[in-house]
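Example 3.2
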Amino acid sequence: MDASQKIDIVFADANDFEICSALTSAIEDHYGFDTLLKNNSSIPHDRWAIHSVLGNTGFFACEGYSRLWSTQTDHHGFAKALAEIGFPILSSLVEKAIGIVPSYILGDYDLVEAHTSSEAARDKASEHLDTKIIFENPNIQDRLASYIRIRRASYTDLVGTIDEHVQRGRKYQEAEQGADGNSEEAV
């Protein structure tokens, strides 16, 4: 079986969450987390965009968008990646929020926190982003999965790692269900 056949099989068998999570992990394994913080030209753009969208939206869902300005990421690239996967309005909200602080302090926690003249605007913007992206849950994962599935042939070089992450995720889910007493055997 060649890699293009295997990628079709892996993608057909996996759900959207598994595909997004496994490909993001495979991309991180291949390029390294620190390299992916910035939109490095050595990384194919779609791979960087996938990692940026899933990584940043996941991080901010846990930490809140009040961390947007001090996070070490390509802020404008993240906003553009949101637009690329089909969220132009969210992208423009993130771009507008990014513009609240001078670009030279983006990603530096101490400088962002010391920038008291933007504090009220940051609080307001982060609450708005939390509402629009976290609480209203626009289902970014579905659009990201569609974006990934359309491009699946370009990930054949990562298919082994993607499949490993899908299988590892399933084993983890099974273990979690068993630990919670929710497995089919326990019912």
